TrEMBL record:
GO terms for molecular function: 2 iron, 2 sulfur cluster binding; iron ion binding; oxidoreductase activity. This is Aldehyde oxidase 5. InterPro entries: 2Fe-2S-bd (IPR002888), 2Fe-2S-bd_dom_sf (IPR036884), 2Fe-2S_ferredoxin-like_sf (IPR036010), 2Fe-2S_ferredoxin-type (IPR001041), 2Fe2S_fd_BS (IPR006058), Ald_Oxase/xanthine_DH-like (IPR016208), Beta-grasp_dom_sf (IPR012675). SUPFAM superfamilies: 2Fe-2S ferredoxin-like, CO dehydrogenase ISP C-domain like. Residues 1-78 form the 2Fe-2S ferredoxin-type domain. Keywords: 2Fe-2S, Iron, Iron-sulfur, Metal-binding, Oxidoreductase, Signal.
Length: 192
């Protein structure tokens, strides 16, 4: 005798669904919308504004039945070490913003969503976008250090001189006097 299984879609979360299809990059921390470890990006077409609006949501709280017609992007969808890291993933890694790594996918997706909505965010935008993401081990300084490189102010202050004429500003010198035996990037015309 067979048995019928009834699934109440109102109580099936997006997190359960992304795991069910093998996307395990999204993490599960608190299960109550408080830590941001499960953050993914949900995109919807707005027929009034005739544009796509991207929103960072906590997958542990989002009922799957609320996502009819929406597109969901998880951390696997933006890049990986096997294909190519997305700049958001790359910069948090370069700034040592990931220790145990549990919060990292959520941090990355919050920042990625912000950049999709606003490619040149202010520092205030970045802080606000990460307000719902908790990190229990790295601390926020290196995470912010990595992500602030996307901010309007940082790009204006630090990137333009490099792109203007890289070779006139920087040179590679062999660094023997420090007994490190390695190549070091130095500023020309300055003594160290
Ligand atoms: S698991 Fe903490 S917000 Fe979803
Ligand atoms: S790196 Fe461990 S929780 Fe953030």
């Amino acid at each position: 005798m067979g048995s019928n299984m009834y699934i109440d879609l109102y109580h099936v979360s997006l997190y359960v669904c992304v795991c069910a299809v093998g996307l395990t990059g999204t993490k599960y921390g608190c299960g109550g919308g408080g830590c941001g470890a499960c953050t993914v990006m949900v995109s919807r077409y707005d027929p009034v504004e005739e544009s796509i609006h991207h929103c960072a949501v906590t997958a542990c709280l989002q009922p799957i039945c609320s996502l009819y017609g929406a597109a969901v992007v998880t951390v696997e969808g933006i890049g990986s070490t096997r294909t190519k890291l997305h700049p958001v993933q790359e910069r948090i890694a370069m700034a040592h913003g990931s220790q145990c790594g549990f919060c990292t996918p959520g941090m990355v997706m919050s920042m990625y969503t912000l950049l999709r909505n606003k490619p040149k965010p202010s520092m205030e935008d970045i802080r606000e976008a990460l307000a719902g993401n908790l990190c229990r081990c790295t601390g926020y300084r290196p995470i912010i250090d990595g992500f602030k490189t996307f901010s309007q102010r940082y790009v204006r202050c630090h990137m333009l001189p490099f792109t203007a004429d890289l070779r006139n500003v920087l040179s590679l010198q062999y660094c023997n006097h420090l007994h490190t035996g390695g190549w070091t990037l130095k500023l020309k015309h300055l003594s160290f």
